[in-house]
Every structure is written in structure tokens, then in C-alpha cells.
């Protein structure tokens, strides 16, 4: 038996423990000491005791010296699994007419090999010159590893390299040798050079020389082999390790961050695929030759150190020098503004911006202050000043809140604003020779500010002038197409600018004369914009047709105005638009078989067949005959979504491609969720009054790309810039069809998952059994938290990982109040809408406030809107008045500690909170 020594292994040391003499001993205490000496003795065959002598690093340590005895029990170690084969030089022997070349080999556990063991510590500490037992020792047994000081030989074996039949002269006949990756008995390794990347072995270069006298030596002089390692790593087995938080300065910003790594821990069993390639130098040749093609093979490995799969920096917090969060926009200078306008600029920045609060006070006084601010910036020749966009942002918020209440602005305030917006559109510095992002942002904000003012007599009297300014902005954009193409600020600005016609067309009676007078110039500028390079908008992944699609949308709005105001001319007018559209798509080679990518050609065909033709009173069948014949392809629902399946009398599926097993799985999952919903909400399975949405149609596309490509085209322009959507329609209308649009999460394949499946299905259940009327029947700044938080709460229960991570990452000082959550709207951002709303539903259900929760649901079922909102808001007001502090206390004391303790549990890790 070989006797063992040992060496000190690396100990985890997350931080110094309290240095109180009464604290139980822990190996982590060693940070306060330095190792002076180490010795070991063998107590039995597989029990080793190591004695460590340590002395204090400073006077703060509880003991001057430590004497620690660590006893390792490695009797359960499987040495065979840890052994390696070691062989000597080739030898020859003759047996029964055969010459045999062989190796003598040993199965050896080599020196330094870490073997599994159970260990515990006991020992003594010296205090004031006296030794005393360490408190808490002997420690509880723990899993450990022991490093071998001497090798252990487990067995001997003899390996045959080759043999040959001896002839009459007692010699071997010549045999052919060929390189085999897993048979190196005839080769010696002269050089071995591993190459690692991201902490894992990627390749090893070997320089090999045949064993003297072997068959290989008779055929090659030397070989160069590159062995490639392709690790098959299971992402599900990874663990996250994060460093302690750090801070750094970036300019005037203080950034708190930590570095986190996704690792496969040491001891993990992994598979690796190996492949050899290289060159050999044959005997008698003067040139290297490529090795014959070899097959791949697979091996199982146990990691002796962690492998880092990914490493990223997570930002915890970011603060400017003034203490404001970096996420808040830079505050522009307000030196040119009066105090009231400056205050509005300040309140229009940040997340969430105070101007979007309903109680901010969207009145004539503030509108007059904004108008003065706009005029002040124009007087200073700064129409693209950063404060201008924020002043216009207030107008957008003002329009939003007042439009919902059908509140009219006072004549003086409306006149001042109309005058200011007209002056802004006319200012020559808004059209500088040197284009800038700020100009694009202000043009878009100008358009949005006008959207809610088209009903104002002050704007209506100036609409012809404003329409001319709109044309001027289009011409400016076309002139600077090369500079602005692909710029994010201009993508947003142009989208918002083109929506000018979308909203203005709703007032075709009031604007009929102006539209007619400006029509030729409008079509001219839209056509020029569409002919410019902006129609092939430069995205990171290639060109996009978003601007060209918006030009076609603008054409459909002009057609609608012409059809309503001069119906006798609508046919001829549509022909003018058609000619322009055909010229645009031919100019950009977007016709079938054109030089653009297949994806762009299909996008163009879809836009024509299902949008432009539809909104100019035709169907996609116009792609077959007439002016558009051959320029697009008719698209039909039954061709794109051929799969149909009925789950139950209340749910049917329609999909691009599903297996029957997948469809049955969806039916089971949603059926279970439906039963859970009715049980928790105590609905009695009774729908609200006037709800005819008896059957939900669930439409499933193959991928997010297919959803974006076909969703709006097949279903009347439904928005596809989302992860799926529930469209309730008008449930009171007989024959109304509620639809839930979803798509398969293609990035999770080969696993099958429909994205947001459970979340969106709750919206259907909530709309049919809780909330009377259609979407928006109740004010969204009262019911958004209810709808979205309920969907997350029912769908994911306690283990809502994405939401809980968002909540736990928010510093305590920045957590929203209960009132903020109960009064939020969709523009407050995803964290507020989904994550924080979820916490309120959980708060009500986990703290004995379930009666209030059910009372809100009952209130929303009332067909009388005024009574419903009175009862619902009474519950909200009571919660805010009585439970705001309790909610914050529950967050800190119960919810966040619970999440920290449970987020790595099997239950929570198995729950996909994006499902």
C-alpha cells in the first residue's frame, strides 16, 4: 500500500466572519490567518489526517495561533474511475511462430489527483498564551477532495501493439500501417500544445514520432495532428456565479455593477466530440502529405474545473453627479424659458415623466406656458433645441388625457398653441443645411402634438398652412435621405410625421378644401419620398420597407378623403395613386423576381395584397388581373394557416403547423388554467352581460418572424410589434370573433412552446368573465394594472421569474408607491405594467385582502359603467389610504426574501415565466 501525503486545497472564502471568540469555528476563518506549516499522517488505508499550523495576520483575529486537524475519509472513493493508464516502451516476444510487439502498462491514480473524500475539522486556538478547543469542533462532515502525494498502482496489464507471422527465414512480412486517432500504441508524443478559449479546451496540437522498429516507423517519419474538441454542454445544468458589486466612474456617472458568469461546475459530466486532422511525412518522401480522413468520436468527461459558458456585466445602478438616475434623460437647458415652461420641461423628462400623470393638471394655464416656451425658443432661433421636444411631449400628454374626457381647451389656449405650432413648422432653422437627429425628433413631435388638436377651430383655420409645412418636412427628409437613412431618431420621427395624414384624414369634412388644394403637392412629395433611398431603410440586419409601407399607408388615407369628399372622382384618383405605387415598386426592383432579397419581395407583395389593395376598396384578388397583375400574390388565411383543431366548445385552434400531440398539449394546458381562473376569481363560470365571445380562436404562427409577416396582413392590420396579442373586438356585437394571436418560440427548439400562451389566455378569461365591455371600456389608467398583473399572477403564480427579478433589482428608494401602480398606464414601461402590477395581485392574495380583490372583479362586471367605476375606485382609494405602508413593508419583509430563498428552487426554475 502506498502511503499518502497531502497538500492544502483551495478553500472557498466568501468573506471574513465575525471575529468574536464565541463564534463557531469555520474554515472560512482562515482568511484571518496565514499557513505556517502542514504535515500529514496515515491513520488507516484510506483515512488521512492533516495537521495545519496557522498564525494570526493581525491583532484583530480571535486567536494568536490555530492548530487545525483535518481528517479525510476517502474509503468510498472509486479509484478505478480516477485511474489513468501508464505504459512503458514497446517490447518484443516470440510465441508460437508469431512476433508480438507489446507494452507493459499499469492502471495508476497519479500524484496530485484530487479524489472525493469526506472531511471534518477539529483543533485548538491559542489565546493569551493558552490553548483551548475551537468552538464548534469537530465540525459536521462535508464533501471534500484530497490531493494524492504519491501514485497508487491498481493493476498491471499487457497490451499488444501488433503481431506478424514469421516466415521460413524467421522474419515478418511487411504490413500496411494507417493512422487511427484512438490507436497511438506505435506513436510517441514529442510535443503537446493545448489551446483554450473561454476557459475550455478547444484544440490540442500534437507532434508525433513513430516508435522505433514499429510498423508506423517503417512508413512515416513524423506526424502533426490537430485534435478539435467540440463540447456538448447542457445549458440546463449551468449555475450563475456573481462577483461582489463594484463601482466605477464614466464621466459624471457613477455606475454600480457586478460581473456574473454562467458556469458548468467542476464534477459535471459532459460529452465532447473529437476530430483529428493533420499531416504526415512519409518515409522516402520529400513533402508532407495530408492525413487520411478520420471519423469523429465521442467521449464522456468529468470536469475537474468549472467551465464558463457566458460572462456578462450586470448594471445594478447608475447615477449622475446630481444623484439622478442615468435612465432619466439629460435635463436640457431652460435658460430661454420662463419658470412655468421650464418646470414643464423638467416634468416631461424622466421615467415615468410626471406630465403623463392624470392628476398633473392638463389645463389651459400649462398649455399657455408651453406655447410661450415654444415661441421663446423660436425667437432665439433654436427650433430644434432639446427643450422643444419636451414641450411638445407635454402637448401629447395633454391631448391624451383631455381627449379621453372630451374636454375642450379654452379659446385663448387653443389659439396660442395653434399659433406656436404653425410658427414652429415655418421656422427656417427647422430646415438647416446640416441635418441633425434633433430636427427629426422635433418634426415627429410636431406631428404628434397636432394629432389631438385637429378638432380645435384654431388648428382647423390653419390646416392648409400646416399641410404645406408637412409637405416641406417631407421634401427636407427626401433631400437629406442619404444622411438620415438608418438613424434611429429619424426612423421614429418619420413614422410619427407620416401619421399626420392618418389622424388628419379622420377630419375629412373639415379639411376637404385644404386637402384638395394641396393634393397635387402632397402626392408629389410622398412619391419623391418613396422614390428616395429611404424606402430601403437601412437596418442592422439589412434593408427594411417600413418607410415605403408608411408611404402606401398615407396614400390609402388620401384615397379615403377623396372617396368621402368627392366620391365621383374616387376611381380616377385611385388610378393616380396606383400609378405612383407601381412606379415605386418598380424603381426599387421590388417586383416578383427582382434583385432584392426574397424576404423584401415577399414583404412588398404582402403589403400590396393585404393592405394597400384592401384599404383602397379591393381584395388581394386584384393581384391576378388588372394593373397589379403579377406584382403581388393573393394571400389567403386557409393557405397560411391550414391546421385546425377544436379543443372544446369554447376554444378552437388555427395554426401554420402543429402536430396533433402539440395541439392536445395546448388544449390541456389552457383547460387547466381556465379551471384555475374560475376557482380563484369565483366567477361561477358566468360571463358578464352582453358578451357574445363564446368561442375563442387561438391563432398560432410558426415563429415571431411569421407573426410579423402574416399577422397584420391576414387579420386587418392587427399590430404585430409585440409577443402576441388578444383582440377582444366588440363582445356585444352578435357574431363577433375574439382572437388570441400567438407564435411558437422558435429559439427554444427543439423544445416546443407557444410564447405568452398562458398570459394572453387570461386576458380572454378576464374580458369575458370579469370586465364588462370591450378593451378600453374602462379608463386604462385605472385598469391596466388589473389586466396585466392578473394575467401574470394567474399564469405564473408565485414563480414569476422575469417579474420578480425586475422587482428585486430595483433599489428600495426607487420602488413605486402603491398609488403609482394602481394609476399606471401602458406608457409607464414594461416593468411597471407587468412586474409591479403582479406584485399588487400577489399582495392582495397573500395578506388576507382577497375580499377586496374579489370586490374589484365584481365591480368590473357591472354593466353600469358609472356604478362599476365608483365601486372599483372606492376599493382602490381604500387600498391606497390604508395599505400603502403595508404594501411596502410586505415587499421588503416577505416578498423579496421569499424570492431570494426560492428563485433557484426546482419549482421556480421549471416555470417559464415568458410562457
UniProtKB/TrEMBL annotation:
<feature type="signal peptide">
    <location>
        <begin position="1"/>
        <end position="23"/>
    </location>
</feature>
<dbReference type="InterPro" id="IPR002169">
    <property type="entry name" value="Peptidase_M9A/M9B"/>
</dbReference>
<protein>
    <submittedName>
        <fullName>Collagenase</fullName>
        <ecNumber>3.4.24.3</ecNumber>
    </submittedName>
</protein>
<keyword id="KW-0482">Metalloprotease</keyword>
<keyword id="KW-0479">Metal-binding</keyword>
<keyword id="KW-0645">Protease</keyword>
<keyword id="KW-0964">Secreted</keyword>
<dbReference type="Pfam" id="PF01752">
    <property type="entry name" value="Peptidase_M9"/>
</dbReference>
<keyword id="KW-0862">Zinc</keyword>
<dbReference type="GO" id="GO:0004222">
    <property type="term" value="F:metalloendopeptidase activity"/>
</dbReference>
<keyword id="KW-0378">Hydrolase</keyword>
<keyword id="KW-0732">Signal</keyword>
Amino acid at each position: 500500500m502506498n502511503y499518502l501525503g497531502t497538500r492544502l486545497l483551495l478553500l472557498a472564502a466568501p468573506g471574513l466572519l465575525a471575529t468574536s471568540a464565541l463564534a463557531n469555528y469555520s474554515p472560512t476563518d482562515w482568511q484571518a490567518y496565514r499557513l505556517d506549516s502542514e504535515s500529514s499522517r496515515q491513520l488507516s488505508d484510506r483515512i488521512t489526517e492533516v495537521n495545519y499550523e496557522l498564525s494570526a495576520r493581525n491583532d484583530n483575529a480571535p486567536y494568536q495561533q490555530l492548530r487545525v486537524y483535518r481528517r479525510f475519509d476517502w474509503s468510498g472513493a472509486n479509484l478505478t474511475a480516477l485511474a489513468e493508464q501508464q505504459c512503458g516502451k514497446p517490447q518484443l516476444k516470440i510465441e508460437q511462430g508469431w512476433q508480438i510487439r507489446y507494452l507493459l502498462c499499469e492502471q495508476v491514480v497519479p500524484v496530485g489527483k484530487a479524489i472525493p473524500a469526506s472531511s471534518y475539522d477539529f483543533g485548538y486556538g491559542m489565546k493569551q498564551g493558552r490553548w483551548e478547543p475551537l468552538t464548534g469542533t469537530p465540525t459536521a462532515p462535508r464533501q471534500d477532495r484530497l490531493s494524492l502525494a504519491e501514485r497508487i498502482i491498481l493493476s498491471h496489464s499487457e497490451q499488444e501493439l501488433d503481431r506478424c507471422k514469421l516466415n521460413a527465414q524467421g522474419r515478418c512480412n511487411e504490413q500496411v500501417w494507417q493512422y487511427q486517432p484512438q490507436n497511438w500504441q506505435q506513436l510517441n508524443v514529442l510535443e503537446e500544445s493545448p489551446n483554450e478559449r473561454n476557459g475550455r479546451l478547444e484544440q490540442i496540437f500534437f507532434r508525433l514520432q513513430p516508435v522505433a522498429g514499429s510498423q508506423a516507423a517503417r512508413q512515416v517519419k513524423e506526424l502533426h495532428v490537430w485534435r478539435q474538441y467540440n463540447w456538448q454542454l447542457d445549458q440546463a445544468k449551468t449555475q450563475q456565479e456573481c462577483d461582489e458589486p463594484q463601482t466605477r466612474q464614466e464621466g459624471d456617472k457613477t455606475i454600480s455593477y457586478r460581473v456574473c458568469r454562467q458556469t458548468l461546475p467542476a464534477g459535471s459530466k459532459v460529452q465532447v466530440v473529437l476530430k483529428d486532422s493533420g499531416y504526415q511525412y512519409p518515409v522516402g518522401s520529400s513533402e508532407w502529405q495530408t492525413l487520411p480522413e478520420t471519423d469523429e468520436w465521442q467521449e464522456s468527461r468529468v470536469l475537474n474545473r468549472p467551465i464558463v459558458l457566458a460572462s456578462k456585466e450586470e448594471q445594478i445602478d447608475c447615477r449622475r453627479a446630481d444623484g439622478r438616475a442615468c435612465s432619466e434623460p439629460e435635463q436640457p437647458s431652460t435658460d430661454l424659458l420662463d419658470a412655468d415652461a421650464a418646470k414643464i420641461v423638467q416634468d416631461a423628462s424622466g421615467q415615468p415623466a410626471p406630465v403623463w400623470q392624470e392628476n398633473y393638471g392638463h389645463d389651459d394655464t400649462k398649455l399657455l406656458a408651453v406655447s410661450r416656451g415654444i415661441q421663446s425658443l423660436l425667437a432665439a432661433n433654436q427650433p430644434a433645441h432639446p427643450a422643444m421636444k419636451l414641450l411638445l411631449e407635454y402637448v401629447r400628454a395633454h391631448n391624451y388625457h383631455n381627449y379621453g374626457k372630451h374636454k375642450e381647451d379654452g379659446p385663448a389656449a387653443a389659439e396660442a398653441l395653434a399659433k406656436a405650432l404653425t410658427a414652429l413648422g415655418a421656422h427656417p432653422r427647422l430646415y438647416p443645411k446640416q441635418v441633425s437627429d434633433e430636427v427629426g425628433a422635433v418634426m415627429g413631435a410636431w406631428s404628434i402634438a397636432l394629432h389631438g388638436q385637429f378638432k380645435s377651430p384654431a388648428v382647423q383655420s390653419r390646416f392648409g398652412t400646416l399641410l404645406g409645412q408637412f409637405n416641406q418636412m417631407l421634401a427636407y427628409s427626401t433631400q437629406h435621405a442619404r444622411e438620415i437613412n438608418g438613424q434611429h431618431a429619424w426612423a421614429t420621427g418619420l413614422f410619427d410625421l407620416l401619421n399626420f395624414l392618418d389622424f388628419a384624414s379622420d377630419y375629412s369634412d373639415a379639411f376637404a378644401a385644404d386637402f384638395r388644394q394641396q393634393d397635387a403637392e402632397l402626392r408629389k412629395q410622398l412619391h419623391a419620398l418613396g422614390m428616395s433611398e429611404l424606402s430601403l431603410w437601412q437596418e442592422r440586419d439589412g434593408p427594411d420597407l417600413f418607410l415605403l409601407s408608411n408611404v402606401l399607408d398615407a396614400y390609402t388615407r388620401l384615397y379615403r378623403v377623396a372617396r368621402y369628399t368627392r366620391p365621383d372622382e374616387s376611381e380616377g384618383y385611385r388610378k393616380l395613386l396606383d400609378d405612383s405605387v407601381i412606379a415605386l415598386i418598380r424603381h426599387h426592383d421590388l417586383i416578383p423576381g427582382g434583385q432584392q432579397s426574397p424576404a423584401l419581395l415577399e414583404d412588398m407583395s404582402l403589403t400590396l395584397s393585404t393592405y394597400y389593395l384592401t384599404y383602397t376598396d379591393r381584395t388581394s384578388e386584384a393581384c391576378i388581373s388588372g394593373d397589379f397583375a403579377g406584382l403581388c400574390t393573393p394571400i389567403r388565411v386557409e393557405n397560411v394557416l391550414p391546421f385546425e383543431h377544436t379543443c372544446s366548445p369554447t376554444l378552437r385552434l388555427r395554426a401554420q403547423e402543429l402536430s396533433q400531440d402539440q395541439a392536445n398539449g395546448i388544449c390541456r394546458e389552457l383547460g387547466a388554467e381556465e379551471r384555475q381562473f374560475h376557482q380563484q376569481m369565483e366567477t361561477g363560470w358566468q360571463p358578464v352581460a352582453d358578451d357574445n365571445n363564446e368561442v375563442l380562436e387561438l391563432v398560432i404562427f410558426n415563429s415571431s418572424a411569421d407573426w410579423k409577416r402574416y399577422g397584420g396582413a391576414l387579420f386587418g392590420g392587427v399590430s404585430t410589434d409585440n409577443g402576441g396579442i388578444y383582440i377582444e373586438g366588440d363582445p356585444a356585437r352578435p357574431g363577433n370573433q375574439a382572437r388570441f394571436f400567438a407564435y411558437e418560440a422558435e429559439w427554444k427548439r427543439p423544445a416546443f412552446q407557444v410564447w405568452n400562451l398562458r398570459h394572453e389566455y387570461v386576458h380572454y378569461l378576464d374580458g369575458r368573465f370579469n370586465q364588462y365591455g370591450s378593451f378600453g371600456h374602462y379608463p386604462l389608467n385605472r385598469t391596466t394594472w388589473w389586466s396585466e398583473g392578473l394575467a401574470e399572477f394567474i399564469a405564473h403564480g408565485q414563480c414569476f421569474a422575469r417579474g420578480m427579478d425586475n422587482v428585486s433589482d430595483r433599489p428600495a428608494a426607487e420602488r413605486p408607491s402603491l398609488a403609482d401602480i394602481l394609476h399606471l398606464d401602458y406608457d409607464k414601461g414594461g416593468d411597471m405594467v407587468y412586474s409591479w402590477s403582479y406584485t399588487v395581485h400577489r399582495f392582495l392574495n397573500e395578506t388576507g385582502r382577497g375580499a377586496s380583490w374579489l370586490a374589484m372583479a365584481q365591480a368590473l362586471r357591472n354593466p353600469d359603467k358609472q356604478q362599476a367605476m365608483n365601486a372599483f375606485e372606492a376599493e382602490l382609494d381604500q387600498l391606497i389610504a390604508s395599505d400603502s405602508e403595508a404594501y411596502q413593508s410586505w415587499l421588503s419583509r416577505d416578498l423579496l426574501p421569499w424570492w431570494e430563498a426560492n428563485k433557484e428552487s426546482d419549482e421556480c426554475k421549471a416555470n417559464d415565466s415568458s410562457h
